[in-house]
């Protein structure tokens, strides 16, 4: 097999494959079995059109127009009109990584052999991925049923030579971008336009990248909590495995284990009764709070793993049974609910992180650290406004955590009378993850500052690695300086997850 290629096979793909294509520039290739499945479904579509059977989306209009028959000679025009009329997205363009992810997921769904698209059309989409032609896709406009119609239509515009696309970092007309990349544009034929846009690939792409980041975020949260335990001389008894095993939740048990492993060998943490009887909830209940979010994210991940390999078309072609069935697999409800769940779960991680940061900067709560982590408070503000910024992000997350999936607005003259709003939910969850990464970066920076302000003592096996990683990028704050640059470096450490890999190499996996 070629290095740096994700192969589309009947066995499906994994979330890690989505990340490889979206962020690392992996190429995409179809297996022989997938190509054969695509061709088999297409043969059935061609036969049905030739026989002039009345089948939704093949020989009828769409949505409320499903009762309008279309002449077989006009089925190609029907598909083109579908795309150009549905490309009604607004707002900022989706990031390149999201566009690549959704293109991959659409290829994967089409390759299952239930869509009735031509192999040559799928290959154009693959060629665009492999040569770096990324359609300009506005982020807003999807109801999440019938699938992500508006954004996916913008993807198809580029295949037709319409609309706009990015190529080699430049926004061009799609026609010019395709010509420069050496890719031929296409003319759609029966069923193809509908096959390309009737699915949940936009919300699922955002969700797949989001849940991948959320898993790393949870590991980073445990690292940050352990560093704060070091800075605040936290009590480790509350992390004893016996406490968590009698409750039984997996995420809680694993969080306690992770933190204790990170703190192994530390001379800074304390035992109950040594300096205090117990810590506040932000330290003592970290396993319960992190653990609940971890369990939620595991559930979300399991649903996204299903959806990235799902057939979400309408109608669905069943070549073996010689049947075409109009159904509702395009409905985004399975993704809508889990996107809202992930948003809430990650919001809580930012929430407790900010509370730990507050304990670091507040002299009434920090167990002896100077106010706002500054040795010359008054002349210097220290970390005062770092906590402000974290609080602002946490507050915004609370607004964004309002579920999108509980809303529905009827569309297409009430033919489509319940929609998921799943893409709105996915976009919100993605923004919350970004905010949480920032808050954790601020906590990590504050914790390391607190550690430096204590008397020197041995750090834990894992926390020492984390401390050194941060200090390699950000120096201790001795006098006030421009802080946003330091924050950005800390957030970058969280996002890149190198710190996680280094720690796992040293002390073993941090488990969810």
TrEMBL record:
2,3-didehydroalanine (Ser): residues carrying this PTM: 146
PANTHER family in the cross-refs: HISTIDINE AMMONIA-LYASE (PTHR10362)
InterPro entries reported in the protein's UniProt record: Aromatic_Lyase, Fumarase/histidase_N, HutH, L-Aspartase-like, Phe/His_NH3-lyase_AS
Keyword Lyase included in the entry's annotation: yes
Species the sequence originates in: Acetoanaerobium pronyense
PROSITE patterns per UniProt: PAL_HISTIDASE
Metabolic or biological pathway: Amino-acid degradation; L-histidine degradation into L-glutamate; N-formimidoyl-L-glutamate from L-histidine: step 1/3
Name of the encoding gene: hutH
Recorded family membership: Belongs to the PAL/histidase family.
EC number: 4.3.1.3
Keyword tags: Cytoplasm, Histidine metabolism, Lyase
Reaction(s) this enzyme catalyzes, per UniProt: L-histidine = trans-urocanate + NH4(+)
Predominant subcellular localization, coarse grouping: cytoplasm
Name of the protein in its database record: Histidine ammonia-lyase
UniProt enzyme class: lyase
SUPFAM superfamilies found in the cross-reference section: L-aspartase-like (SSF48557)
One Gene Ontology molecular-function label: histidine ammonia-lyase activity
Post-translational modification note: Contains an active site 4-methylidene-imidazol-5-one (MIO), which is formed autocatalytically by cyclization and dehydration of residues Ala-Ser-Gly.
Covalent link location (5-imidazolinone (Ala-Gly)): 145-147
Subcellular location: Cytoplasm
Pfam family membership, one: Lyase_aromatic
